[in-house]
Design goal:
This protein has helices spanning 4-8, 11-17, 25-37, 42-54, 96-99, and strands spanning 55-56, 64-75, 81-91, 112-126, 129-142, 160-177, 180-194, 205-206, 212-225, 230-241. The chain has five helices and ten strands. Helix content is 17%, strand content 48%.
Length: 242
C-alpha cells in the first residue's frame, strides 16, 4: 500500500495537470488497455474508459477497484445480526493523501470510512466449518477530517455518504482452535448510490450507480458466546469489478 503512486501511475502529478477532473493521457490509455485485456468489445472498452473519467473506486472488468480494513461484529440471540466498520486503504483514482490525513495509515487517520449492516439468511454447520449467508447494505463516507476509531463503531458513519451498495455475502469460517476461526468472506455488490467526493481536486464520484463487483475478505475470528454464536472478526479485503 505504501507505493500507491507507482501502482496508479503517479496520480498526484495527473491531478496537478488536470484539476478539472479530466484523466491524463496515461490514465486513459491504461484504462482502455485494461478493458480490452479483460475481453471487452471496443464499444464496451470505450464505455469503461468514459466511466473511469468521471469516477474513482471503479475500473474495467476484472480489476481491483477498492481495498479495505474492517471489523465485523455478529450479535443477536441467535447470531443473526451483523455490522461491519472500517476504512478504505486503496482505491483506483485516489492518492494516499486523498485517503489519509497524517500517519500512521490507520483507522484514526482515514478519510474514507465504511459501515455495513446485514442479517443472517442461512446458516449451515458441519463440525469445524461453518457457512453463513448474509444480506445487507454497505455505505462509504467521506470525512472532512480524520477521527474514526475501532473503539467506536459509530465513528465510521461520520461524514458525507458518497456510495452505497446492496450486498449478498457468504462467510465460511474454519474453526482451528477453541473459539478461534479463519473467516473467508465472498459475495456480490451492486452499487445503489454514488456522490461526488469533495476536496480532492478531482470532483469525481465514488463508483457509479448500477456497477457490480465481487467482494473478498479474510482475517481472524473470535467466538464470544457459543450459545448465541456472537463473534468478533478482524478482516481485510477488496472488491473487484465484474
Amino acid at each position: 500500500m505504501a507505493d500507491h503512486e507507482d501502482e496508479r501511475g503517479s496520480p498526484k502529478d495527473d491531478v496537478s495537470q488536470h484539476g478539472d477532473g479530466r484523466l491524463s493521457r496515461r490514465e486513459i490509455v491504461t484504462v482502455g488497455l485494461a478493458a480490452v485485456g479483460a475481453g471487452l468489445s471496443p464499444s464496451a472498452a470505450a464505455a469503461a474508459t468514459e466511466k473511469a473519467a468521471t469516477a474513482v473506486g471503479t475500473g474495467a472488468s476484472g480489476t481491483t477497484a477498492t481495498e479495505f480494513r474492517a471489523r465485523f461484529e455478529q450479535s443477536g440471540p441467535t447470531g443473526e445480526h451483523f455490522i461491519a466498520y472500517g476504512y478504505v486503504t486503496n482505491a483506483q483514482g485516489l492518492s494516499e493523501d486523498d485517503l489519509f490525513d497524517g500517519t500512521p495509515l490507520s483507522d484514526t487517520t482515514a478519510l474514507l470510512t465504511a459501515y455495513a449492516e446485514g442479517e443472517l439468511v442461512r446458516r449451515t454447520v458441519d463440525q469445524s466449518v461453518h457457512s453463513l449467508d448474509i444480506e445487507g447494505t454497505l455505505t462509504v463516507y467521506q470525512r472532512a477530517s480524520p477521527g474514526a476509531t475501532f473503539a467506536d463503531a459509530g465513528s465510521f458513519q461520520v461524514g458525507t455518504p458518497v456510495a452505497q451498495f446492496a450486498i449478498t455475502l457468504q462467510d465460511i469460517v474454519t474453526v482451528f482452535a477453541p473459539a478461534k476461526g479463519l473467516p473467508t468472506l465472498t459475495g456480490d455488490m451492486r452499487q445503489t448510490a454514488a456522490s461526488h467526493l469533495e476536496g480532492t481536486g478531482l470532483r469525481k464520484k465514488f463508483g457509479s450507480v448500477g456497477a457490480e463487483s465481487r467482494l473478498f475478505a479474510t482475517g481472524l475470528g473470535t467466538l464470544l458466546n457459543p450459545a448465541t454464536f456472537n463473534s468478533f472478526l478482524e478482516m481485510a479485503g477488496h472488491w473487484t469489478m465484474k
